[in-house]
Specification:
Order of helices and strands: EEEEEEEEEEEEEE
Radius of gyration: 14 Å
Largest sheet: 6 strands, antiparallel
Shape: globular
Strand order of the largest sheet: 2-3-4-11-6-9
Structural class: mainly beta
Number of helices: 0
Strand content: over 45%
Length: about 140
């Protein structure tokens, strides 16, 4: 059976560094956290030492990871360590991004974007409902 999370039912809170806002969907004691960030402006990400991050933007962005410029197209996943110096540049205007953080060495995870028209409602698993796109979340 599918478990579907809807970020709009969760109150947005400021990022740890105050540079943006996020909606926390899961904070699991097994060592992972799932959020949906509201990307309203170019910003520096908060530092999360010891965590691995999996990031899936719903708009085209550029990430600067430890000074390395990396274009990230809409609905494309990028992984990076939580202690990396990361900033986001919005090249296609405001949007949202799904962010999965896992405790390094304890668990790992993946995110996969699925268009609503291609989603099988009988599929089991954990999904984030973002309108025309659902994001499948897998943690092991």
């Amino acid at each position: 059976m599918a478990r579907i999370l809807t970020p709009d039912t969760v109150t947005a809170v400021p990022w740890r560094n105050g540079a943006g806002s996020t909606r926390q969907l899961v904070d699991d004691l097994a060592g992972w956290r799932l959020t949906v960030a509201d990307l309203d402006q170019d910003a520096t990400f908060s530092d999360f030492p010891g965590l691995d991050r999996t990031f899936l933007p719903l708009v085209d962005v550029v990430l600067r990871i430890d000074g390395d410029r990396r274009p990230v197209p809409r609905a494309t996943v990028i992984d990076f360590p939580g202690e990396a110096s990361v900033a986001v540049e919005l090249v296609a205007g405001p949007g949202r991004a799904v962010n999965l953080m896992t405790v390094r060495g304890r668990c790992s995870g993946t995110l996969t974007a699925i268009s609503r028209s291609e989603w099988d409602q009988n599929q089991s698993g954990l999904f984030v409902d973002l309108g025309e796109v659902l994001v499948e979340v897998r943690v092991s």
